[in-house]
Amino acid sequence: MKQDLLTFSDWTPDALHSLLELALTMKQSPAAYANVLAGKSVAAVFEKPSLRTRVSFDIGINKLGGHMVYLDCQAGKLAGREDAVDMAANLACWADAIVARVFSHQTLEQFASAAKVPVVNALCDKYHPCQALADYLTLYETFGQVKGLTLAYVGDGNNVTHSLLLAGALLGCNQVVVTPPGHEADPAIVAKATTIGQATGASIVQTTQISDAAGADALYTDTWLSMGDDTPLTTIKEKFMPYQVNEDMMAITGAKYVLHCQPAHRDLEITGSLIDSSKSLLMLEAENRMHGQNAILTHLLGA
């Protein structure tokens, strides 16, 4: 029976830990996995532009011996030509898996229901599981463990926040989500992560106070202005500048490292000097996108 990866909400702690271990093993021993996708093709459907997601999937699939077909729905005039279920069903006639970076999670659900091959969420409005796996792989490499760590997310409660919450709870990583009032993470997802955390020992805290991030091992932030959001920058800065991740915040919280999924806007959500410092894990995160995604495809395709 085929398995999709739309979100980690339906995964078990053991399954996600095994996937994390697989990603690390594949990164450390790439030659052993050079042919696991030999003869296989992956269709990549992109409704939104991308640097890291597109390149890391394309090169990663190639390194595993597979082939990626990139479909740009906007530039390629595919948007609106046919229903999502028909597109997915057709792609599944030829491809061995579908990777989709879309605006709406509902599109992914339609893809998964119509396609006889695995569907991977490469980003949607609710979740970003590939990013979360790369993030926890980065923490795993840096600290030697994930369970028992505390990750503090500071900024806008969004798709990245949601996947960090779910994956972190499954892995036993304590979560502190610090947002401006009115920008909290989805309550249902916070509740789900809290329930998972009760079984794994991970605490979940949602707050508007920076002081609640004291004791965090690492800070995480994301862009304040999501793609397609036309809110004036002056309005965004008025709300979010007190939540800028900077050297002072690192000192106040005691965090050793900082993470950001990128693209980063220097001196807005994070200072450029912090990005370039020895406390920055941004490039390791970006590198690990490929290794995490390679593990996902290897797992889903039974390679």
Automatic annotation (TrEMBL):
Keywords: Transferase. InterPro entries: Asp/Orn_carbamoyltranf_P-bd (IPR006132), Asp/Orn_carbamoylTrfase (IPR006130), Asp/Orn_carbamoylTrfase_sf (IPR036901), Asp_carbamoyltransf_Asp/Orn-bd (IPR006131), Orn/put_carbamltrans (IPR002292). GO terms for biological process: citrulline biosynthetic process; L-arginine biosynthetic process via ornithine. Residues 4-141 form the Aspartate/ornithine carbamoyltransferase carbamoyl-P binding domain. It catalyses: carbamoyl phosphate + L-ornithine = L-citrulline + phosphate + H(+). It holds the Pfam family OTCace_N. One of its GO terms (molecular function) is amino acid binding. Residues 147-299 form the Aspartate/ornithine carbamoyltransferase Asp/Orn-binding domain. Its EC number is 2.1.3.3. It comes from the Bacteria. Belongs to the aspartate/ornithine carbamoyltransferase superfamily. OTCase family. This is Ornithine carbamoyltransferase. It comes from Salinimonas sediminis.
